[in-house]
Amino acid sequence: MKLTLKIWRQKNASDKGGFVTYPIDGISTDMSFLEMMDVLNEELAIKGQDPVHFDHDCREGICGMCSLYINGHPHGPQQTTTCQLHMRTFSDGETITIEPWRAKAFPVVKDLVVDRGSFDRIIQAGGYVNVNTGGVPDANEIPIPKRVADEAFDSATCIGCGACVAACKNASAMLFTSAKISQLAMLPQGQVERMSRAEKMVAQMDEEGFGACTNTGACEAECPKGISLTNIARMNREYFSASLKSENV
Amino acid sequence: MILDSKSPIGPLAEKWTKHKFNSKLVNPANKRKYEVIVVGTGLAGASAAASLAELGYKVKAFCFQDSPRRAHSIAAQGGINAAKNYQNDGDSVYRLFYDTIKGGDYRSRESNVYRLAEVSVNIIDQCVAQGVPFAREYGGLLANRSFGGAQVSRTFYARGQTGQQLLLGAYSALSRQVANGKVKLYPRTEMMDVVTIDGHARGIVTRNLITGAIETHAAHAVLLCTGGYGNVFFLSTNAMGSNVTAAWRAHKKGAYFANPCYTQIHPTCIPVSGDHQSKLTLMSESLRNDGRVWVPKTVELAQKLRKGEIKPRDIKDEDRDYYLERKYPSFGNLVPRDVASRNAKDVCDENRGVNETGQAVFLDFRDAINRDSEDAIRARYGNLFDMYQQITGENPYQTPMKIYPAVHYTMGGLWVDYNLSTTVPGLYSLGEANFSDHGANRLGASALMQGLADGYFVVPYTIGDYLAQIGPAPVDANHPEFAKAEKGVKDAIQKLLSINGTKTVDHFHKALGHIMWEYCGMARNAEGLTKAKGMIQELRKEFWRDVKVLGANEELNQTLEKASRVADFLELGELMVDDALNRSESCGGHFRLESQTPDGEALRDDENFAYAAAWEFMAENSPETLHKEPLVFENVKLTQRSYK
Q1: What's the CATH number where B491 sits?
Q2: Contact call for A143 and B139, based on CB within 8 A
Q3: Cα angle at B537 between B536 and B542, to 5 degrees?
Q4: Which of B197, B100, B208 minimizes the C-alpha distance to B635?
Q5: Considering the domain A116-248 in this protein, what is its CATH number?
Q6: Would strands A18-24 and A3-9 be described as parallel, antiparallel, or unpaired?
Q7: Does some domain include residue B43?
Q8: Over the stretch A51-81, which tens digit does the pLDDT of each residue have?
Q9: Where residue A249 falls among pLDDT bands split at 50, 70, 90?
Q10: Fewer Cβ atoms within 10 Å of its own Cβ: the N or the C terminal residue of chain A?
C-alpha cells in the first residue's frame, strides 16, 4: 500500500506544533497501525530526522498506553485500540490524519504523546477500597450475585486510555470516572465509602479541567472496551444521593 | 562467595512461620524514618509499594510508563492459582507446592515454593477485599477452573483479563497510599543504575524520560520489581517497553544473575506475518482443549498450501498429521507448553509449516464445531476467535487457526535468597525479575500468584529484618558514590549519542533477536551456542561503533531509551548463551539436543545439574564467574516427566 500521512508534530509542551505530511510506501495490509508507524520512524531515523513520538506498550489492546486520533476518531475508524487496528482497514492511496488526544487536562508532551496524569489523580481521590494488606475476610465470606459481579467486571474493564475524553466535544472524563465509581458502588466491598468516593472523585475530575457531560454518547461509541453510558447515569445517581447526606461533605 | 539461600531449617510446613517469628521487627514509630525505593509497578512492585507504605515506611515508586497501571502484568489472561480447595477436589497447599516443583522440572528451591503455595490463599482474600471482580457461580461464590493440565480446579479468573483486574487492584492500593502521602510516584522515569555504598544498596540513579534529567535517590533499601527479559529475542509476547536494564545494571553492581537460559516459549501464539512484525500475541492455551494441532503429512502438500494453490480444508484426513495425538496418545493436544512448542518447531523444520513463512502449524476447530456446534465453541472462545480475526483477517470458524510458539516468560532472573534479597544487601528482587519459584518451567496461572505473593506477603516481613539491623539513620545523599554513579550514567548516554553511526537501534535489536531465537531458542546445542556467542560479541562491537541515536538527552527521546535498553540486551544475550552452554542437560524450557531420551524427550541430569547457576559479573567484556546453589530435595522425589 501507498499512503499519505498527515501527522501532528510538536517539539515539546510549549511549542505551537503543526501538521507535517509524509508519503509512505510498501505498507502491508497485515501490519498493525503502530507497525506502520514503526516503518515510518525507521525511514526517518535513517534519513537523520527525529522519529514521530507516540505512546504504546503492550500492543495487545489492554495496557491503555496507545492513543492517536486517526481521521477524526480516537483509535481510528474501528472500536478498538490503535495497536489492534490493522492496515487492511485502510485503502491504497488514502491520506491518513494523525493527531494527539486533544483536551485541556491532557497536555501534549511531544508529537502524539500526551500527559494523562489527571486520570491517575482521579483514582487517587477515591478509586479504591480502604483496606490494608492482611486481616481481610475469607474471599468466599461475602457471596456476590453473579449478575452483580459480571456487571462490576464490565465497568472494571476500562483501560484508562482516554479515548472517551478525546471523543467528547466537552473533553469530559465522565465515562472514565463513572466506570470506577460504578464498579465499587455495585460490589459489597465498596459500600462503606460509597458516598464519599463519588463526591471526591467527581470533585477531582472537575479540578483537573475536564468538561461537563451533555449526553451525546460519543464516549461510549468510541470506547475500545465498550464501557456503557449506564455508568454515567449511575455516577450521577451516586453523586446526587451523596450530596443529600451532609456527613459526606 | 558461598551462596546462602537462608532457607530456614525444620519441617517444610513450619519454615515460614518460624522464619517470620525469628525476623527482627522495626519499631512502628521508627518505620517512617526508613525510605524504600520500589522500581516497577506491576503486580510485584505495586503490591510491595502499597503494603510497605501501609506499614509506615516512606516509599518512592518508579515506572517508565506514563502510569503505574500500564505495567505488563496487565496483559496476563488466564488466571491465578491458589490452594483454596473451594471445589472440594483434593487440593491443598502441599499439592500446589508439589505441582509447582514438578512443573518446574525440579530446578527450584523447595522452601520458596512451599511458601508461595502457603500464601496463595491470602492473595485471593486480599484481591476480593479490594473489589477485584473475579468470576462467580450463580450461588455468589467464586468460580474456579482447571488450567494448564492441572488435576484440580484451583485457578481463579476474571474472564480473559485476570492480570488486568489484579493489577488494577494493586494499583488502587498504591493510589490510596499516594493520596495518603506515603508513596511518592515517579511515572515516566527509568532506573539507570543502583548506588552501592560499602557493598550495600543505598539508592538509584534515574532518568526523567520527559526532560532527560538524571537524578539520584537515596534510600535504606531498593526493590527491583522490573519483570522479565523476554524482549532479548526482539519478538516476544512482552510489551514493547519491557526490558532488562534495571536488573542488568544491578547485576553489574554485584547482584548475581541466576539461570538466565531458562525461557518459556508458549506454543499458542499468532505466527509472524513478516519482517515488519513488532510483537507477538498470545492466544490462551485453553484453545488446546478443543482445537486439534496438525500439519500436512507431506512436504509437497505443505508447499502447495504455502503457495495458496490449495486450502486447508482441501487436505483429506488421511493426509493430515495430528502429530501431538500421534506421539503422545494419552495427553494428545494437551501436552505441557515446552513439549507442544518443541514439536511445532520440529515439524516446521521438516518443511511442513503451513503459512507463507513456513513457520506455523494449524489449530483446527472443525471437529469440535461438528461435535458441539459453532455456538458452543463461540460461547467458550468467542473473544479469542474475534481477537484472532482482528489480527489476521481470517475467520477461525471456517478455516483453521495458524499458530506458532513465541517467547513468553523468563524463569531466570536475579538470584535471591529466602528473604528475596539479592547478593547485594539492601537490594531485593520480586516477581518475574527474580529467579526463584518456577525452576526451569513455569506452570500456567503461577506468574500472577508469585508476583503478588512476593509483594503483599513476603517482602513486607523479610525487609524488616534487614532494616532493623542497619538502623534508621538517614542515608547520606551526598556520599561520593552517588555523584560517581550519576556521572557513569551521563557518560554512557553521551557515548550512545555521540556514535552517530549508520544503523538504527531496531536493526541491532532484530539481529540479536534472530541469533537468540535461532541458537538459544526452543532447542540448543553446543555447536550452535558457541557460534552464537561469537556472533553476539561481534554484534555488540558493531553496535558501539555504528549505531545511530538521534536527538539529545534533554528531551523525550524514545530512540535513546531503546538504545540504552538494547545495549543491555546485547550483554545479557551472551550470558544466556554461556548459561545454556554450561547446562548440558535438558530441563523444562531448556532443551539441549545432546541430552534427550531415545524417543526424543528432554533428559535431565540430576547428578550433575541439580543446582541454580548464579553468575557473577567480573568486568566489561570478561567471562562471568559461575556460583552454584545446590538444590536439596527433602520432600519430593525426583522423577522423569512423561506424557506418552
Answers
A1: 1.20.58.100
A2: yes
A3: 95
A4: B100
A5: 1.10.1060.10
A6: antiparallel
A7: no
A8: 999 999 999 999 999 999 999 999 999 999 9
A9: very low
A10: C
Q: Which domain holds residue B622?
A: 482-630
Out of B54, B72, B122, whose CB is closest to A58?
B72
**Contact call for residues B264 and B411 (beta carbons, < 8 A):** yes
Q: How far is CA B466 from CA B236, B416, B427, B461, in A?
A: 37, 14, 10, 10
Q: Is residue B228 in some structural domain?
A: no
Give dist(CA B344, CA B336) in Å, integer. 13
Choose, out of B85, B126, B162, B558, the residue to mutate when testing the contact with A (most A CBs < 10 Å).
B558
Q: Indicate if B394 and B490 belong to the same structural domain.
A: no
Task: Tell me the helices (H) and strands (E) count for chain B, helix number first.
Answer: 19, 19
A115 touches chain B (CB under 8 A): yes
Instruction: Give residues 2 to 21 of A whose Cβ lies within 8 Å of B.
Output: 11-12
φ, ψ for residue B81, nearest 5 deg: -80, 145
Residues B487 and B623 reside in one and the same domain: yes
pLDDT range class, residue B78, cuts 50, 70, 90: confident
**Mean pLDDT within B634-641:** 91
Nearest CB to B74: which of A62, A127, A146?
Answer: A62
Quick check: B501 and B548 in contact, CB under 8 A? yes
Assess if residue B137 is contained within a domain. Answer: no
* Number of domains forming the structure of chain B: 2
Question: Is the ipTM beyond the 0.90 threshold?
Answer: yes
Of all helices (H) and strands (E), which one includes residue A64?
Answer: none
Instruction: Bin B465: left if φ > 0, else alpha if -120 < ψ < 50, else beta.
Output: alpha
A101 near A74, Cβ under 8 Å?
A: yes
Answer yes or no: do A133 and B51 touch at CB < 8 A.
yes
Answer whether B605 touches A (CB < 8 Å). Answer: no
| pLDDT above 60: residue A246 | no
A129 touches chain B (CB under 8 A): yes
Looking at B407, B441, B464, the residue that finishes a domain is B407
What gap in Å lies between CA A191 and CA A129, rounded to an integer?
9
Q: How far apart are CA B199 and CA B219, in angstroms?
A: 14
CB contact B88 to A (< 8 Å): no
In chain A, residues 136-165 whose CB comes closer than 8 Å to chain B: 136-140, 142-146, 149-150, 152-153, 156-157, 159-160
Q: Catalytic: B337?
A: yes
Q: Which residues of B touch A84 (CB under 8 A)?
A: 387, 390-391
Whether residue B126 and residue A133 make contact (CB cut-off 8 A), yes or no, is: yes
Name the superfamily (CATH) of residues A3-110.
Answer: Beta-grasp domain (3.10.20.30)
Compute the count of residue pairs across chains A and B with CB atoms less than 8 Å apart: 216
Give per-residue pLDDT as tens, B363-414: 999 999 999 999 989 888 888 898 899 889 999 999 999 999 999 999 999 9
Choose among A35, A110, A140: nearest Cβ to B142.
A140
Residues in A closer than 8 angstroms to B136, CB to CB, are: 143-146, 149-150
- Output DSSP code: residue B339: H
In this structure, the answer to whether residues B395 and B533 fall within a common structural domain is no
CB-based contact, B133 to chain A, within 8 Å? yes
For B:63-82, CB contacts with A below 8 A are 65-72, 74-75
Section B285-309 average pLDDT: 93
Domain ranges of chain A: 3-110, 116-248
Please check whether residues B402 and B505 belong to one and the same domain.
Answer: no
Cell numbers given for A240: 446526587
Q: What is the pLDDT of residue A68?
A: 97
DSSP 8-state symbol, B5: -
C-alpha to C-alpha distances, B495 to B16, B483, B564, nearest whole angstrom: 47, 18, 10
Tell me which residue in A125, A134, A144 faces B136 most closely, judged by beta carbons.
A144
Q: Pick the catalytic residue from B69, B95, B154, B337.
A: B337
